[in-house]
């Protein structure tokens, strides 16, 4: 299979890397994390919009670039290398694809240009407490009332939930004694009855738990009631899974580079520790894990929109398993090879390690996808 990128794709990757290298050093990231109440920089977010990265998943007919999974993969590679705190995955990938896929003409015209320009941020509020990675387990309910719906329920650990202007909330359409199909509602963050609790996650990202206490939304907030929302949501989540796999590869590459550089400069017993054969073997194993992860990231990008659902599910689970194993192995080896300083806040290695650990648990853990893959083979 030919993995050569087109000239436009390579330009996208190079441009994003240059922007991050110029405007997003590790010290800049640290300052943003420590001083921004939102946990990210609006200035950097506008810079991503000016590069066209926020319009990457907006269809051409809606005024966007109409990029696909490969273009998203390349952008996420660079974002992983830079360890960006900005809500690219949540807003520019998941939420944008949800609106582009399920929104009607008026909803797309109103929301997509604002998201592409960086004027609005949206977040997909789907995960709930106790679901154990079962994305179909949605307890939030939408009760039809008058000319709208009343939402009740809770959402858990929604990245950038308190910064989003718009929350795309998943709920089961319900009536007395009945549970209906899955639906997605575009809900402004400041509606009465909607309560958010903000906190920092282990990787430095701001997340929120959301309580929906009889939140009334008009019928126009419902994204395409005629669609098979559950099937569409699975496609959207698979696109997000492929994107986060690409982010992991970018972070893994930077972690390996930092470890090799440290091994060249750190001396023990009068010579660089990189000359010790046992440590060379460890770094060689890191390279093998990363190259396997890169190949599976390509597979995820190619298969995340496959209309053959079973083929897609196997490919996505396989990619998440291999990349999850690489996140854990490479992260642990990098920390150990750096010694005690590998876990200090002053060194970027510890931050890459924490982000990789968070990635391993998102969109289903390594163990869960291993079980899914085995069940699909059986």
TrEMBL record:
Acyl-CoA oxidase/dehydrogenase middle domain sequence ranges: 125-210
Cofactor field: FAD
SUPFAM superfamilies, per database record: Acyl-CoA dehydrogenase C-terminal domain-like, Acyl-CoA dehydrogenase NM domain-like
Domain of life: Bacteria
Keyword list, A-Z: FAD, Flavoprotein, Oxidoreductase
Start and end residues of each Acyl-CoA dehydrogenase/oxidase C-terminal domain: 237-377
UniProt-listed InterPro entries: Acyl-CoA_Oxase/DH_mid-dom, Acyl-CoA_Oxase/DH_mid-dom_sf, AcylCo_DH-like_C, AcylCo_DH/oxidase_C, AcylCoA_DH/ox_N, AcylCoA_DH/ox_N_sf, AcylCoA_DH/oxidase_NM_dom_sf
Cleavable signal peptide: none
GO molecular function, one term: acyl-CoA dehydrogenase activity
Presence of the UniProt keyword tRNA processing in the record: no
UniProt domain Acyl-CoA dehydrogenase/oxidase N-terminal: residue ranges: 6-119
PANTHER family named in the record: ACYL-COA DEHYDROGENASE (PTHR43884), ACYL-COA DEHYDROGENASE FADE28 (PTHR43884:SF20)
Family from the record: Belongs to the acyl-CoA dehydrogenase family.
Name by which UniProt lists this protein: Acyl-CoA dehydrogenase
């Amino acid at each position: 299979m030919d993995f050569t990128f087109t000239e436009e794709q390579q330009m996208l990757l190079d441009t994003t890397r240059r922007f991050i290298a110029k405007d997003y050093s590790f010290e800049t990231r640290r300052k943003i994390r420590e001083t921004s109440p939102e946990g990210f920089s609006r200035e950097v977010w506008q810079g991503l919009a000016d590069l066209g990265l926020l319009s990457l998943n907006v269809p051409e007919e809606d005024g966007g670039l109409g990029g696909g999974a490969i273009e998203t993969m390349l952008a996420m590679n660079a974002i992983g290398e830079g360890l960006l705190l900005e809500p690219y995955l949540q807003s520019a990938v998941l939420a944008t694809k949800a609106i582009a896929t399920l929104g009607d003409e008026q909803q797309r015209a109103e929301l997509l240009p604002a998201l592409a320009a960086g004027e609005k941020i949206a977040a997909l509020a789907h995960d709930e407490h106790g679901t154990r990675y079962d994305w179909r387990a949605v307890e939030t309910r939408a009760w039809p009332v008058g000319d709208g719906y009343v939402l009740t329920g809770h959402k858990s650990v929604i990245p950038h939930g308190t910064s989003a202007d718009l929350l795309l909330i998943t709920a089961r359409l319900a009536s007395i004694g009945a549970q209906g199909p899955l639906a997605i509602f575009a809900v402004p963050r400041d509606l009465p009855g909607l309560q958010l609790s903000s906190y920092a996650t282990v990787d430095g990202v701001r997340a929120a738990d959301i309580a929906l206490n009889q939140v009334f939304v008009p019928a126009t907030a419902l994204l395409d009631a005629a669609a098979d929302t559950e099937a569409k949501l699975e496609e959207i989540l698979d696109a997000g899974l492929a994107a986060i796999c690409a982010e992991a590869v970018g972070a893994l590459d930077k972690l390996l580079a930092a470890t090799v550089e440290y091994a060249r400069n750190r001396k023990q017993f009068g010579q660089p520790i990189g000359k010790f054969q046992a440590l060379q073997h460890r770094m060689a194993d890191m390279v093998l894990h990363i190259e396997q992860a890169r190949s599976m990231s390509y597979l995820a990008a190619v298969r995340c929109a496959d209309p053959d659902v079973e083929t897609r599910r196997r490919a996505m689970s396989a990619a998440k398993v291999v990349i999850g194993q690489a996140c854990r192995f490479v992260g642990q080896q990098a920390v150990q090879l750096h010694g005690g300083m590998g876990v200090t806040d002053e060194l970027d290695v510890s931050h890459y390690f924490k982000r990789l650990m968070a990635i391993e648990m998102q969109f289903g853990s390594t163990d869960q996808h291993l079980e899914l893959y085995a069940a699909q083979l059986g």
